[in-house]
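Following up on my earlier thread - several people asked me to post the actual chain instead of describing it. Fair enough. Here it is, all 323 residues.
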Amino acid sequence: MGLFTPFVPYHTSAGSSTIRKFGGLLTVEFLEPPPGRSFMMRQTYRLDVEGPVSPELRKLIDSPQRPDGPAMHFHRYQSEFFHVEHGICVAEVDGVSRNLTPEDGEVSLPANRIHRFHIHPDSGEYMTVLLSGSDAGIDNQLDRVFFENWYGYWHDALLYDGGLDFIQKLQMLDAGGHYTPAPAWMPFRLFFGYWTSVIIGRWLGGLLGYKPFFKEYTTDWEFAVTKMKSSFWTRRSVENFWAAKERWDREADLSAGPNPTNADLQYLLEDVTAATRATKAKAAGNGYSNGFVENGEVSRADEETVTGISSGLKSQTAQVRKR
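Reply from S.P.:
Thanks for posting it. Predicted structure:
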């Protein structure tokens, strides 16, 4: 991807309640959230992927960028809830690490706490955690639209683009109310982390034509478009034509009528391979035209009409040649 070039997805995962990224290293199952929660999902991180994998995936698994959990971040408006179902989850909050296991039950994390979590090396083959977040009732918050797009982009960018685009990353995270804090040595880490994402991701990214959500990743695209249109910075990147697109059942109804023909141009719009010609010849030999209408059923009036059209075409052709 070139400099300041908006990202284009490499794969499609819209419409999937369970998505798998990085060859199964990360599996996300979206669940119906309970009242007062904006999302709920079951995440499974694996320490390794069984079986043969592509060189690109093996290189990623063996690198420092290996997907084992989100990077350090904070949520400005939402609290998060964790419930480990299998394995050991390392939760680091404000610089203090804690190992979470199924025996700990659900653990809550208030908004504006700097944190991350990842799979513990002693988890066995995998770690599964049930995640949910409070519903702040705002556009820029954690929800299924955000996670579908973030995990889709994370997968494609690391495997096929060589890394995350800084502007694209900040814009997508800002759309989910998910912010990267400033370095530990800086004061006001939350303040600078938030405004860096807003200025570079939301404002600059919007001016350059970046967008936080992609139809290829998003199940509820209408909701995603509504969210993007609510922002001055992203509404210019949203097209409107998609809403007028016919659904398949409507397209099937529209296609049920007679097929269009193109006079003497029709020949090159049909299958002219030897196999098709043989099939048509056999059908004609059995007394059928196009496999449906018997030649013997063509009326005298139809024959005269066809003869007249043919004579007219020949006459017009002769006149053109004389000119």
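The radius of gyration is 30 Å. That should answer part of your original question.
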